[in-house]
Amino acid sequence: MKQLIIMVLLSGCVVPVWADTISTDKTDFAPISTAIDDAAYDIRYYSSNNFTGNKINGYKAPRAYLTKEALAALAQAAADLRAQGYRLLIWDAYRPQKAVDNFVTWINDPNDPGDKTFYPTLEKSNLLAGNYIMAKSGHSRGSTVDLTIIKKDGGFVDMGGTFDLFSEISHPDYKKITKKQKQNRKILRDAMLKAGFKPLESEWWHFTLKNEPYPDTYFNFDVE
Hints:
Blueprint: E1 2-10, E2 13-23, E3 29-31, E4 40-41, E5 65-67, H1 68-83, E6 86-92, H2 97-107, H3 126-129, E7 144-151, H4 179-194, E8 197-200, E9 203-209, E10 217-219
Parallel strand pairs: 2-10, 4-6
Antiparallel strand pairs: 1-2, 3-5, 6-7, 7-9, 8-9
Helix pairs in contact: 1-4
């Protein structure tokens, strides 16, 4: 392991952001498919269908990895949801540090607007300052997952908002959605909390294992 410094350009100033340690050791990681055989995948950062409008560094295959501890907990949530008639749709899980660096580089490029539909009411420069995008992401610690639920036949479940929409609409407790949309969010949230995950109060789709095994380590191996 070694120390990592990310140099972030904010308002014309170079700011060092320290990660505690960085590692390329993937021994304690496994693909989600090894424990949950009915999950569906739409790995957004492997494609251009994300806020940058481009494929992201470090995503060499449309796969999703988690630490084995997080994956065991996610399998519990999947079983709970399966009994209710749902299965998981995974958007992102482990995220290499190089991918996060890619996000920061994009934010600091004034000539690349990316896909404005993901931040319709914000200025691009506000995404980092407003903590919509972080220079250090829990995803890089390997025990965070972005997901939703779909019906067993693959049918759509309406959550009242889309993945990576940088807006208050994405807050789990957002009030201006329908009763059914609120209930759908609650079904996912309840199953994830019961399995040992904690939510993020700005994104209804984002959950981190409470007792994550690597709280101070940021990983940087490719998703392949």
